[in-house]
Amino acid sequence: MYLSQDAEDAALVRRVLAGDMAAFEVLVVRYQRPLFTVASRMLGSREDAADATQNALVRIFENLGTFDPGRRFFSWSYRIVVNECLNVLRARRSEGTAGEPMLAPIAFEQVAAAERRVAVQRALMELAPELRAVMVLRHYGGLSYEQISEALGGVPVKTVKSRLHTARQRLGRVLLGWQER
Amino acid sequence: MNLKRVDELIDARRDGTLGAGAEAELNTLIDRNPEARRRVQDLARLSDALDVLEEEQPPAMMPGVLQRISELPARRPAARVIQWMPRSVNGGGMVMAKKVMFGVAAVAALVLISVAITGYPHVNSSGTLGAISAAKRAQAPQINAADVKTTDPQVQEFLQSDTFDRLVKDSNVKKMLSDPGVRAMLADAGIQSAIKGRAFQAAIADANIQTALSSKALQSMLADSAFVAAFSKADFCAALAKGDLQSALASAGIQSGLAKSDLEAAFAKDNISSALASSALQTALADANIQAALAQSGFRDMLASSNMMAALSSSAFNAALQSKAFTASLSSSQFVSAFSRQ
User: Fold this and answer.
1) Residue B92 and residue B15 share a domain
2) What range does the domain containing A31 cover?
3) Domain co-membership, B8 together with B101
4) Residues 101-130 of A with CB under 8 A from B
5) How far apart are CA B117 and CA B110, in angstroms?
6) Is residue B158 part of a domain?
7) Is A25 on the interface with B (CB under 8 A)?
8) By mean pLDDT, which of A91-100, A105-114, B96-105, B109-118 is the weakest?
9) Which residues of chain A make contact with B39, given a CB cutoff of 8 A?
10) Do A153 and B214 touch (CB under 8 A)?
11) Are residues A92 and A108 in the same domain?
12) Which of A24, A68, A148, A159 is packed most tightly, with the most Cβ within 10 A?
């Protein structure tokens, strides 16, 4: 019988809650890559992203009993990983380890792919965390406005749209030389 | 030209959720408006640019995750709920669950109301921490981030966030601010002192706390007349001001507990706020033993457990909340004794 991904996730959660650790491993395999990608874009560091993702996966397990099967498991998971990332960013700020200098607009499309990767990640890191989270969840997580709202703990959809627009404008200016409109 | 609208239509098309009317609107915009056409091209270029960062293969994560899970106090959340709930029906566990609920609710209330009304942590011109005077609060309960000065960058960030903005503009919060009992409570020296604590500052900066603060369910609960009445009573006030509660506030357990979606749903239930108004509960909350229990790590671990959160949202728990005998039991010496052993 065909089950949607959401229904499959809900069934896996039920099995974990019944004590089936193999079901949790299926969830980890299914979601570790997208969660890690989001963490990596949010934090700009593979090492920190790995720690944040691992913390998030443990917290997902710990809190699985509170998961509402009427909601999407992946949105709920993204919420946990985004919160982990925000805490890492706050800790960095208090330790004074954040803050690459602002980039000047570059001839983005004329440089090599490796340089473009560095430029994009740096441009993302220049965004305020709340803008970065929306941009990352939309572009790299593929979430809809409503799913982003859910993943950010109920931020209004209108705010999601506004942040996404602002984030795009800033990235466009830094990477592609968009003019202020 | 509304570029945001173009963005919205393009996103909907990409998500496959663009209806016929919106599709026609987008096509018309592209056909007739050069700026819209340029925006579509710009978004495509930006998307291509961002795609240079591909999805990443994470390092091996499973062994570390499983190892950490094996070290957790309870590896099977559901199993622990099953074992715990029958005891709850007999009284002990259920009472514990209720206390945890109120403990978390009280902490959330303290954070929310203090931030909304006092603009914590206010720093005066001499650089020392202080709070907006009771008189000023009474006259001008609405504040904004500009009213608040702090040297803590994390708190400053929060004060400039959408969460804080929504909080101070929320109609329920405004209604609460107009309650004389609440204003009197906030003038209490113990509460003022608690607000200035370092634990409180750390909690404010935590992402989970901030998520909880943005919960509509929590804000609705705080606007409930029964809850407001409870909050303005002396015993409840004294309980909130105790140092142990402040210590508990800084714990990962409480912060994690505040982020639970089921807890938010529980906050929204009428019977929770009604129960909060009971004098028996307030007496129990003010008890020294309960305050001591709040400071214990075991209690905090329990708060963090998914079993506890599942239990709190169970129908059995909610049925018990309706019982007068149950509410009355909160102030019994046996309950206090059991609670303080945790």
Assistant:
1) no
2) 1-98
3) no
4) 108-109, 113, 116-117, 120-121, 130
5) 11
6) yes
7) yes
8) B96-105
9) none
10) yes
11) no
12) A148
CB atoms within 10 A of CB B28: 11
Domain count, chain B: 2
Those of residues 150-179 in A touching chain B at CB distance below 8 A are: 153-155, 159, 161-162, 164-165, 168, 171-172, 175-176, 178
Top pLDDT among A56 and B75 is at A56
Cα of A76 to nearest chain B Cα, Å: 9
- Closest-CA distance, A142 to chain B, in angstroms, reads 9
Quote the CA–CA distance of B119 and B137 in Å, as a whole number.
10
The pLDDT value given to residue A24: 92
Domain holding A144: CATH number? 1.10.10.10
Q: What is the 3-state secondary structure (H, E, C) of chain A?
A: CCCCHHHHHHHHHHHHHCCCHHHHHHHHHHHHHHHHHHHHHHHCCHHHHHHHHHHHHHHHHHCHHHCCCCCCHHHHHHHHHHHHHHHHHHHHHHHCCCCCCCCCCCCHHHCCHHHHHHHHHHHHHHCCHHHHHHHHHHHCCCCCHHHHHHHCCCCCHHHHHHHHHHHHHHHHHHHHCCCCC
Report which of B171, B166, B170, B169 is spatially closest to residue B210, judged by C-alpha positions.
Answer: B166
Write out chain B residues lying below 8 Å of A140, CB-based: 50, 53, 55
Residue-range definition of the domain harbouring residue B335? 84-340
Residues A57 and A117 in one domain: no
Query: Does position B56 have pLDDT exceeding 70, yes or no?
Result: yes
- Is residue B34 domain-shared with residue B140, that is, in the same domain? no
Q: What is the pLDDT of residues B6-33, one digit of tens each?
A: 999 999 988 888 888 988 999 898 888 8
Distance from CA of A8 to the nearest CA of B (A): 19
Express each pLDDT in B310-340 by its tens digit. 454 445 545 554 555 544 554 455 544 444 4
Q: What is the mean pLDDT of residues B235-242?
A: 55
Q: Would you give per-residue pLDDT tens digits along chain A (181 residues)?
A: 445 788 889 999 999 988 888 999 999 999 999 999 999 999 999 999 999 999 999 999 988 888 888 888 988 999 999 999 998 998 887 665 544 444 555 677 777 888 888 999 999 999 999 999 999 999 999 899 999 998 888 889 999 999 999 999 999 999 988 886 5
Rg of chain A over CA atoms, in angstroms? 18
Are the beta carbons of A156 and B214 closer than 8 angstroms? no
Please tell me whether residues B28 and B152 are part of one structural domain: no
